[in-house]
Amino acid sequence: MGSAAQAIDVADIEVRKILDGLPDRLHRALDRAAAETPDYPALIDDSRTWSYRQLSEALQATASALQALGVRPGDRIMLVSENCIEMACLMLAASQLNAWVIVSNPRLSPRELDQIRDHSGARRMFFTTRVSPEAANHAARLNAEIGKIGPLSDIGIGELNESTQPEPVEADPTKQVAVLIYTSGTTGTPKGVMLTHGNLLFSAKGTAVLRHMTSKDKVYVVLPMSHIVGVSLILMTLLTGATARLVSKYDPAAFARHIAEEGITTVNGVPATYQRLLEYKQVAGLSKLDRGSLRLIAVAGAPLDLDLKTRVEAELGIPLLNAYGITETSPGISGVRLESPRTDQSVGGVMPGVESRIVGRDGRIITDGSVGELHVRGRNVMLGYYRAPDLTAKAIDPDGWFLTGDLARLEGDALFIVGRSKEMIIRSGFNVYPAEVEAVLNSHDAVVQSAVVGRPVDGNEEVVAFVQLLNGSKVSASELMDYVRPQLTSYKRPSQIIVLEALPATSTGKILKHKLAESLRET
Fold it and tell me: Dmax over Cα atoms in the chain, in whole Å?
């Protein structure tokens, strides 16, 4: 009884520490540092450095410029951008207006980007053409005017959507949406994950507290801000008065140099981030990588191979901390603690303020360490899917439990993710939903049906497509690859397309994907 009460007390203390002084809007994350250390660097990218004072002043000017461009409270705006100061500034300035930001990867295909724009009813689209040729191409395609927004230059400014209506504004930070992040969903159609100011700030500060972040930290933000982890890294940096080093595109040689020379203390990556770093060391003929000021390296977004973990730790001399999170939970669910590193594949204990349970197929809660579906509940769980109440009801039960769809087990307080009940493939940290890739393939006139599965490779997964063609069709796998290339962003494109006379199926016609996956392991 005493130990249980003590555990609850510790959890309560951690939650109170996170909530203490937590701001009510994203842009207020920098208020304390702007007042106390205004000349300290807040954001750095390849071309410049902004202090907290400069960032604070830029937000005011940018918010005024967005208002002049017709952005209203409750409007949705799309930011099509790689990591850069402009993207961070636009996101935080939108918060000042109570507008929702849709963070979008410029490497999405025209079809994917337009689908998000149309579903969200975005008021305007903005493109950071200075750092992203892909964003510049989208801007040109959509006739965006290149101009200035406050202190930001070379921004593609999309046309004003006169017909869209703003959403109601909520004073409560747990009800006001800050960021809308689209995932393709298992149906192949986009789902807009509504994350509130309360969701994002609570999750970001919780991670900062667990990682013992201080203003002396310099965080390497190479994971895209068009995805949830990149957004969270910016917020945890600003909340602690630290410095974020923004990187628009990952390059292992630049990564090694930045670590050695720029005083980077914290790196968050996917397994492929570290795999490619080790490959670079070998190709470059280096005897040892210079760790510089690194104190913490973390990984999430895909299963962590123990061999890779061991090699990274031996090279850099510090533990590689595994973590687990998903877009719908802002993203933090669990993480290995800095003070308690592990030698296995556990993703650590759940975050402060997050409840978890393992549920069996019969709906009963599992307590014996067996595998079941992971459910979580807490301040980090999304408000829901935008304009999709039916999907929201399937994902969040009446008691607030979010059904992750991931299979997990517990050893004491340590969580292990053992598989995915959904068919999602995780490629370089990005979610790939087979249904979306299959829909593109099936739209080809010569394709009868297709099936997409994942194939494990070193620290990553590949997308492999199996295709059945019309009788007599002479279409080749390379021609099919040419067909899908402009319709899918790079990480969603199949690494290989295999043409079969017929796909294995049950008597009812359901494709047996496990047999296809097994065939890849046999080759």
Answer: 74
